[in-house]
Fold:
Amino acid sequence: MPDSFGPPQYSLGLTYDKHVDPDHRVHLMTTDLYYISWYIRSGHAEIKCNGQTFQAGAGQWVFIDPFTRRSHRLWGDPVLVSIRFRLSWRGLDYLPPQLGIRVVDGGNLGQLLAAAEALCEADQGELPPTSAAYFRRQSLFFRYLEQWRRQRETFGVAEHFPRDQRVFAIIEHLASHLSIQPIDYAGLQRAVGLSRAQINRIFQRETGMSPRQWMVARCLDEAQQRIRQGSQSLKEIAALLGFFDASHFTRWHRRQTGRSPTDWREMQDV
Structure:
């Protein structure tokens, strides 16, 4: 199936290999659309998700999938190698099924660590897409993805592309009507020719989440892209995504990420 529409697209996010800034050591109930990998050089990590607590220490990897709502705290002079990247394919930000948080000993993952270190060293922020440095970073990124994929395959869970094409019609309609307000199922039903029950069943089966969960995550991502760009006020972003006002948007963003939009934006510059 992917050959009919092109392969998934991968984009590199924030990378670093350093001490974790004190302001970044505690996050409460945050979520995003990135695949995240941490290698803990020193210190400790505690991640809480869905009633479970995961502990990781020096010499271990932590793998986190998109849409994973979690809290974490780092302590003990934490030094991390951290790689964040996104996957995009026809409106999906991951290949189902989503995997739970994984903590893995790093003893047999020397190639993954070497690839991550090289990528961090080469990641110099924004680079002209015609420069040699840009292509070197991209080649190192795909070297890392190869090793990341090899490790992921050891988890024994077969990822798959959605088989029911109707899910893409649903996604396309939802993407063109991004709003935090309740989904307009009447309009969605007319657009895709399915009942509400069929829509929910197909979407859940093919993506592993409900249309509402997808919509909330997409609204958060859209909001944060606009916050990062800095060209619109919170009031304008709130209106665009169906919030009553900027205060409503701020409260919602804090529930989703543990931080106000302003605090979140300031953290992106650290």
